[in-house]
Amino acid sequence: xxxxxxxxxxxxxxxxxxxxxxxxxxxxxxxxxxxxxxxxxxxxxxxxxxxxxxxxxxxxxxxxxxxxxxxxxxxxxxxxxxxxxxxxxxxxxxxxxxxxxxxxxxxxxxxxxxxxxxxxxxxxxxxxxxxxxxxxxxxxxxxxxxxxxxxxxxxxxxxxxxxxxxxxxxxxxxxxxxxxxxxxxxxxxxxxxxxxxxxxxxxxxxxxxxxxxxxxxxxxxxxxxxxxxxxxxxxxxxxxxxxxxxxxxxxxxxxxxxxxxxxxxxxxxxxxxxxxxxxxxxxxxxxxxxxxxxxxxxxxxxxxxxxxxxxxxxxxxxxxxxxxxxxxxxxxxxxxxxxxxxxxxxxxxxxxxxxxxxxxxxxx
Length: 364
Known about the structure:
By secondary structure, the protein is of the alpha/beta class. The chain is built from 9 helices and 18 strands. The relative contact order is 0.15.
């Protein structure tokens, strides 16, 4: 109990680091259900980051607590909320890595934000998590305290739409029929598409178009599949089940906020080899993002004025600049978004398999 008392004082009052202190980082990811493979990749990537840091940050020992935010059906609000509350009730908690899904993040962020805990997502790209509007400098509604404590190491949904626009321009697509499900996710994709350097003309109804762009939260068969002779484009929501797109004679191309492991920069080579050696499997798309979310948390703890003070760690995270990482060199901007502008790209073959392009998509 004496050691615990020291940690309560250190974390709660912002005193200098104690040599005997141990801090905890919570990782919340879907370890069950349809995204379990990605969730385990995130958790195992985070474990490797802690190993590479020799289990410490800022001279303080770090423990890792991994929890599932999902049931057999997918991410679960009750499980996610319980994870976030467990983190806030643990006086040793210094940061929280999660969630993989934006919906789950909307559940956990208000809880961790009220406790002033840094939360870094490896996969949630929703625009409203970092800003209520592109021009707003205020903390979004989901960060209820009014102070920013959330950020991410993956490009946003809007970035993904912009990357699709870059791919269309490179492919000679000048007009596109948007097949939208009307969700906020779809709206972000279309906003990004419109923001591309040379955006395609968006047509409606039965007007001819070069291609169809699917903007939907889940796998769908596009209503306009017969429109456009240059194919179908979509987002990583379609990567969950690309066979739902049906059999098409035209090309199917999908963007991904996460780079495929084959598209990561050379700086990731050691990580990829270590992951496969440690877990006897090849890493999926989100393994590197789990690693980097944990790595930047540890880096923020190490750079904080007081590594045991939650507010100092948050400040250090938002001061992240020109960080050299396995994802590439990036900074964290004023709202908590990464400045990385490289995203994944896939083509779907005739058997419904997603095959990564040789080159990632780069937004100028």
